[in-house]
Amino acid sequence: MRNSRQVLFFLPLSGHSDDLPFAETSNPNPYSAPQSDLSSKTDAFAGVPLWNPNAAACWSLLFTPVFGAILHMKNWEALGRPEKARESKNWAIMAGVVLLVVTAFSAMAAPGSLGDRMGNIVGIALLAAWYMSSGRQQVQLVKESGDYIKRGWGKPLLFAVLATVALILFVGVVAFSMESGSTY
Known about the structure:
Elements: H1 4-9, H2 39-42, E1 45-50, H3 53-78, H4 82-108, H5 114-145, E2 148-150, H6 154-181
Parallel strand pairs: 1-2
């Protein structure tokens, strides 16, 4: 039988929290404030090295959506999401092919013509389509999930610069071959 003082104030005389009708057994101190488990948010990517997906999307303004899609693919692989990695890989391949074709046509077009400006128009449209359909998902996921190990940008930016130089050489070769093959 309980003491009336115990029932009235719900304080156990024995000092054990399991004497309380509403006590939680996981907390050893019955008088402490309630605790929340916040580890699910902050530790979701703890120990996983990732490139900042938002920065990758921003660098895609300069280095095309191929750059962002490849880095997002690598991030998805690190997160153990192969279906998302495959989606990003498909975006990278598709964007690369489209940009090569458009760049070749732009190189052959007369300066100032619609064909010449087509590379800029298609590039911006492709970047917007990639970000809205694929890139933004990773940006939001990483932003909501908390901390992660930040990967360095040296290698990706070096490869992006080298790819840009290769693209410029490709355009130069195409333009030179078109000019040398034409008769005036």
